[in-house]
Specification:
The protein is an alpha+beta fold. The protein contains 2 helices and 6 strands, in the order ββββββαα. The protein has helices spanning 96-118, 132-142; strands spanning 11-14, 27-31, 41-44, 50-53, 61-69, 72-80. The chain has a 4-stranded antiparallel sheet with strand order 3-2-5-6, with no helix packed on it. The chain is elongated and about 100 Å long.
C-alpha cells in the first residue's frame, strides 16, 4: 500500500444577491481554460452561497465559474498558474452601453454647469432701491 499527497489550491467562491442574501443551492458550472464550451465540473452552492473550486493545476489560465439561480447569474473568472498571479475578487465591469451613458451624463453635467455660469444676470437691487430706469419713470409720473 502507498499514499502520497499534493498541495492543490482550492478557491472558495461566495455568491450573494445585491441585498447580501446568499444564493442558496444555485447551479454552478465550471469551465476549464482548455475547453471553455464543455463543463469541467457542475454543482451547487451551499446554504451560505459558497462553492469550492479545486481546479487542475496543470490547466493554467482563466477558469470560468457560472453561477445561476432564478434568472440571476454571475460569471467569476479564477486565474490558475504562476504567470497569472494570485486571484483577486472579481468586480463587474462596465459594458459599452454603460460606459456611453456615463460619458453622456458627465458631458451633460459639464455643459449644464458651464451654461449656468455663462447666463446673463439681472441687475440686482440693493435695499429695495429700484434700478435707475425705474426711478426716472417714477419721477416723470409724479410731475
Amino acid at each position: 500500500m502507498e499514499a502520497s499527497w499534493r498541495a492543490v489550491p482550492t478557491f472558495e467562491i461566495q455568491a450573494r444577491y445585491d441585498t447580501g442574501e446568499p444564493m442558496r443551492s444555485a447551479q454552478v458550472t465550471v469551465f476549464a481554460p482548455s475547453n471553455p464550451s464543455t463543463p469541467w465540473q457542475e454543482g451547487q452552492t451551499d446554504a451560505q452561497g459558497r462553492f469550492w473550486l479545486q481546479p487542475d493545476p496543470e490547466l493554467k489560465g482563466l477558469w470560468q465559474v457560472h453561477i445561476r439561480q432564478a434568472g440571476h447569474g454571475v460569471v467569476v473568472k479564477v486565474p490558475v498558474g504562476e504567470a497569472l498571479g494570485t486571484p483577486s475578487p472579481s468586480s463587474p465591469g462596465f459594458g459599452p452601453l454603460q460606459r456611453g451613458v456615463m460619458a453622456a451624463c458627465v458631458i451633460w453635467g459639464c455643459l449644464g454647469t458651464a451654461l449656468f455660469f455663462l447666463r446673463p444676470r439681472p441687475a440686482a437691487s440693493v435695499g429695495g432701491e429700484r434700478p435707475s430706469s425705474e426711478v426716472g419713470a417714477a419721477a416723470l409720473e409724479q410731475d
